[in-house]
């Protein structure tokens, strides 16, 4: 059953792409009408999603102006809430990790409530161990508790990756700190950050406020908006543009919170994490799969609370242009490997009889359509739309539909450029403080770089998505392992 669900996403993608090519040759009239309708559908969808993006953007800016700690202090018992902050580390440069801890130390929240775990890997070697000890020496006294863990290599039933490292680290924190001090599990919020994640001073106040005021704090994940801007000014142009796509998508999803799952840096109740047995140690996409582990364990009684508040991380880069391009492709492919959520989710739905059928259909459609569009939509819109004219029959080229295809689809796509440039403006607003060399001309360049979007989403979004779905479909030796994105400054 699981194997069938693994094959399903890739099979649908390849079937759709092949069928479009064949129909462009066999039945160009019908497929031309489909392309016109599909282009109009995506224009409407872009308009719809843009309004959600603007709504979330407005809420994020409003929340950034609020001092959250005074609001938290108005809630009785707030001081009994602890933050377990887990930072998995592999071979990140010490400078990157140090900046993360400088941001933690600057938090406008009592550090006496912070339990910080720097989760290192034995595979990281001596250099990573020395970097971790240097961090502990400099910052260890700033927090209530500071723990460095070393995840052993080669444990049975595990794959190397964040899920296995985080599980090892949190179990150690539970055993050595939480259980020893008898801290109630219900009073602990677990934040899982990448080692380059920098939280703004008010972030933990905002998180605590949400945890203490939401309807079901022990049945909720908490999702910030990821901004990949720490090194945005030194990143190559393709990385700069692509770094805003997950940000904008997360903003759209935060406004549609009924569809919101978890992605990269996030927070969750420690009690729930213990209940489900922590992260899966044999799967790659631990950041999104943990949502489904909660959802299935609690029979659908789980949701993701949108924080409407950012954390900042690194954009993908490299020592050379070619290396940066390769790193970006591999990062996008790893994110697209989140398609493994589908067999995990569907297998769980089949086994769990308590989750309402409407919820199962809802989430199945959201994820199947999402990954299908991720892999196919750019190809259909930017490449395949011209196939009926190119490979259709001579008789088709003489029809009104053939004449109308380019004259209808072209203007529709041109209209979508308006919203592309609106996104470009938002991306400039989201930039961090400008370095000294940044001049007025750079605003123009950062605006015009968005003209590269059609080519970039084909090469760095659709292609890696198709590869990931194909690998999952083929299985065995084609499956992806965890690939840690290299960090550099």
From TrEMBL:
State the protein's name.
Answer: Glycosyltransferase 2-like domain-containing protein
TM ranges? 7-27, 33-51, 361-388, 408-431, 443-466
SUPFAM superfamilies for this protein: Nucleotide-diphospho-sugar transferases (SSF53448)
- Record keywords: Membrane, Transmembrane, Transmembrane helix
Q: Where is the Glycosyltransferase 2-like domain?
A: 190-387
Q: Does the keyword Transmembrane apply?
A: yes
Q: Does the keyword Transmembrane apply?
A: yes
Residues in coiled coil: none
Q: Which PANTHER family does this chain map to?
A: GLYCO_TRANS_2-LIKE DOMAIN-CONTAINING PROTEIN, UNNAMED PRODUCT
